[in-house]
Design a protein that fits this description.
Blueprint lengths: L2 E3 L5 H4 L9 E4 L3 H10 L8 E6 L3 E7 L4 E7 L6 E6 L3 E4 L10 H18 L1 H29 L18 E3 L2 E6 L1 H10 L9 E6 L3 E7 L3 E8 L8 E4 L4 E4 L3 E4 L4 H18 L1 H29 L2
Antiparallel strand pairs: 1-8, 2-3, 3-4, 4-5, 6-7, 6-12, 9-10, 10-11, 11-12, 13-14, 14-15
């Protein structure tokens, strides 16, 4: 089956440990922009320097020149996506930041890998796993307290109340891959670039267990966007011209039936994954945790009353 229930407590989840990271700093200064800024101010601003510092839970983006110094702070949970782009064969950027002269492929790929790992371990994905872990711990505690009340205090335990959302609202998914292209998009890009982009602009979509990866590629440009399901508010498919043209925001388009089946399948699967691995699942987990904690409190009160504590 594509999905398996993971709502129930498991030994693997109980033993889950969360990775810690050392601080890491990247020089993200764009040399061209720095030189232009210096020339436009007749040298007064100096050469602007941009630094990206990755800490345990927060990203710091610092921009500094002779006039100003600004620092932007962003938790990994607020990083919506990781976008890596290649243009004109050798110019690389990540989230619209292109370090050096633009050709630092290794640095961009290293930063992308670093960000991905930290988003998984310290961002929205980790929050969902932590909530599952907490629910497992509280559920186990409630079961042990129920035994203690019956056997240790010799009184009848309060009836167990089922979790408000059950255990099937969180699921673990297998990876799925889709390839498609829109001939109208390909033709438009080819004509507007005088043939530089080539005859076909292809798209590849990977629905991974915790995030969606969308890659768009032609002769000139390649962009890859990774977005956790927890960072997506939702998805819908726009149909125009009696269904001849389909559009899923952030994924791609399909025209005249080319790629329409793939796009509909992606939209359907993506919607399910957002519900089962996104913010909705987190809220339901929180509701279940609160319900279990209340039952533990009731059992503790029953035990203390029986023992006269």
């Amino acid at each position: 089956t594509e999905a398996a229930q993971v709502g129930a407590p498991s030994t693997k989840m109980m033993d889950r440990t969360y990775k810690t990271f050392n601080d890491k700093e990247y020089d993200m200064t764009n040399t061209c922009e720095s030189i232009v800024g210096c020339l436009l101010t007749c040298g007064c601003a100096g050469f602007q320097k941009e630094t990206l510092k990755l800490t345990q839970d927060v990203i710091y983006h610092v921009e500094k020149d002779n006039f100003d110094e600004s620092t932007m702070e962003m938790p990994y949970a607020q990083l919506d996506s990781i976008d890596v782009s290649r243009s004109m064969c050798c110019f690389y950027s990540i989230n619209d930041e292109s370090p050096g002269w633009g050709c630092e492929k290794e640095k961009v790929e290293e930063l992308a890998a670093d960000l991905k790992q930290r988003v998984v371990e310290r961002g929205n994905i980790a929050q969902l796993e932590q909530l599952q872990h907490i629910l497992s711990v509280v559920t186990t505690l409630e079961a042990k307290m129920r035994i203690l009340v019956v056997e240790g205090a010799g009184v009848e335990a309060p009836p167990h109340t089922a979790a408000p959302h059950g255990n099937d609202f969180v699921e673990a998914f297998e990876a799925q891959h889709y390839d498609f292209s829109d001939p109208v998009e390909s033709a438009g890009l080819c004509c507007s670039s005088f043939g530089l982009t080539g005859p076909c602009t292809a798209r590849a979509v990977n629905l991974e267990p915790e995030e969606i990866e969308v890659t768009m590629k032609n002769w000139v440009v390649q962009t890859t966007t990774r977005t956790p399901y927890a960072s997506l508010d939702g998805t819908d498919i726009d149909e125009n011209f009696c269904g001849a043209c389909l559009d899923v925001d952030g994924v791609g388009t399909a025209t005249c039936g080319c790629g329409s089946n793939e796009l509909r399948s992606i939209n359907e699967n993506l919607e399910t994954r957002i519900k089962k691995r996104g913010n909705i699942a987190q809220l339901k987990l929180q509701d279940n945790i609160i319900a279990e904690v209340r039952q533990v409190n009731a059992l503790v009160a029953k035990f203390k009353g029986a023992k006269g504590i």
